[in-house]
């Protein structure tokens, strides 16, 4: 991760809702339809991409989130080195997928801000600004979804134990951060 | 506000979708052989009927996939949803 001005500052901790940024993690966007694409990804990542809508799969190092029938996002479970923007996995997949015309591998590490939202009141905040039905989502660890929160496109991922990860585009992150802060204050 | 059953993601709120106009309009194979009137007919003229209309929709804030929908424009009732490339259901 390159140096940048952070979109968020510190931590939100009001009324049992704790929000902080998880940084730096690697994020890759994968697109492809061919069967070779799926087998190649499986071999390289040691992880099966989820084929069911609104789900994710997890290995000890990586998480794969379903974004569409031919689109996934791969994130690292642990933090990565801060002073570099080069990832071995990205190079590996680029050579094995993009160069062989099987699909597309795009590094979206700096594009998305990953927020961790924790607490038992978090779904009160989501229901205030999102049309997404969280009933099934909140009971199932690993469920994911792309939706709107306060008119901003977000990817949500249920990590279990009342922890939800939120991926938001960097340019919208500051606005969403202050909206969540405002919401948490009024709970 | 109504719920739309995205063929890929499942039931979602209308807010997440964008309407993409009338479906099943075929681009003429030889545009150069058409008269201006015929080209304008293809380019601009839409049915805009009261009743069941076939439309394209995009799940813009979700999976970003396009799909087709048969919708009754008089009461917003969704009659059928089917993927791109599939044939429309009989009326």
Could you give the topology of this structure?
The complex is a heterodimer of chains A (187) and B (91).
Chain A: E1 12-14, E2 17-21, E3 27-31, H1 35-45, E4 56-58, E5 62-68, E6 71-76, H2 88-98, E7 104-107, E8 112-118, H3 122-129, H4 134-139, E9 144-149, E10 152-160, E11 163-169, H5 170-185
Antiparallel strand pairs in A: 1-2, 2-8, 3-6, 3-7, 4-5, 5-6, 8-11, 9-10, 10-11
Helix pairs in contact in A: 1-2
Chain B: E1 3-6, E2 10-13, E3 18-22, H1 36-44, E4 52-58, E5 66-72, E6 77-83
Antiparallel strand pairs in B: 1-2, 3-4, 4-5, 5-6
What tags apply to this protein structure?
heterodimer, A: 187 residues, alpha+beta, Gyrase A, domain 2, Alpha-Beta Plaits, 5 helices, B: 91 residues, Folate-binding fold, four-stranded antiparallel β-sheet, two-stranded antiparallel sheet, 1 helix, globular
Write the CATH architecture name of the largest domain in chain A: 2-Layer Sandwich
Could you spell the SSE succession of chain A in H and E letters? Answer: EEEHEEEHEEHHEEEH
Helix and strand content put the structural class of chain A at alpha+beta
Based on CA atoms alone, the radius of gyration of chain A comes out at 17 Å
Question: How does this structure look, described?
Answer:
The complex is a heterodimer of chains A (187) and B (91). With 187 residues, chain A is of the alpha+beta class. Chain A has helices at residues 35-45, 88-98, 122-129, 134-139, 170-185, and strands spanning 12-14, 17-21, 27-31, 56-58, 62-68, 71-76, 104-107, 112-118, 144-149, 152-160, 163-169. Chain A folds into two domains: 11-24 and 111-187, Gyrase A, domain 2; 27-108, Alpha-Beta Plaits (2-Layer Sandwich), CATH 3.30.70.1520. Chain A is 28% helix and 33% strand. Chain A has a six-stranded antiparallel sheet. In chain A, strand 4 (56-58) and strand 5 (62-68) form a beta hairpin. In chain A, helix 1 runs antiparallel to helix 2. Chain A is globular and about 50 Å long. The relative contact order of chain A is 0.21. The model of chain A has no long low-confidence stretch (mean pLDDT 91). Chain B has one domain: Folate-binding fold. In chain B, strands 3-4-5-6 form a four-stranded antiparallel sheet, with no helix packed on it. Chain B has a two-stranded antiparallel sheet with strand order 1-2. Helices cover 10% and strands 37% of the residues of chain B. Chain B starts with a strand and ends in an 8-residue tail after the last strand. Chain B is mainly β and 91 residues long. The interface between A and B is medium-sized, with 14 and 13 residues.
């Amino acid at each position: 991760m390159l140096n940048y001005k952070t979109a968020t500052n510190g931590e939100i901790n009001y009324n049992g809702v704790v929000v902080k940024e998880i940084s730096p993690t690697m994020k890759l966007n994968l697109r492809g339809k061919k069967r070779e694409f799926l087998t190649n990804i499986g071999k390289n990542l040691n992880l099966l991409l989820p084929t069911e809508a609104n789900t994710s799969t997890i290995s000890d190092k990586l998480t794969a989130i379903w974004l569409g029938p031919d689109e996934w996002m791969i994130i690292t479970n642990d933090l990565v080195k801060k002073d570099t923007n080069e990832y071995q996995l990205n190079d590996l997949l680029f050579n094995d997928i993009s160069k062989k015309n099987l699909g597309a591998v795009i590094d979206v590490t700096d594009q998305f801000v990953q927020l961790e939202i924790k607490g038992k009141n978090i779904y009160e905040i989501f229901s205030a600004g999102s049309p997404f039905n969280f009933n099934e989502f909140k009971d199932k660890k690993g469920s994911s979804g792309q939706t709107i929160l306060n008119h901003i496109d977000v990817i949500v991922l249920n990590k279990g134990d009342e922890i939800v990860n939120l991926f938001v585009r960097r340019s919208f992150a500051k606005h969403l951060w202050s909206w969540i802060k405002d919401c948490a204050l009024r709970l | 506000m109504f719920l739309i059953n995205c063929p890929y993601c499942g039931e979602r709120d209308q807010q997440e979708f964008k309407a993409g106009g009338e479906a099943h309009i075929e681009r003429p194979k030889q545009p150069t052989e058409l008269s201006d009137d015929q080209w304008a007919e293809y380019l601009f003229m839409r049915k805009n009927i009261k009743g069941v209309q076939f439309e394209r929709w995009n799940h813009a804030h979700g999976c970003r996939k396009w799909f087709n929908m048969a919708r009754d424009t008089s009461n917003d009732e969704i009659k059928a949803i089917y993927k791109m490339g599939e044939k429309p259901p009989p009326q």
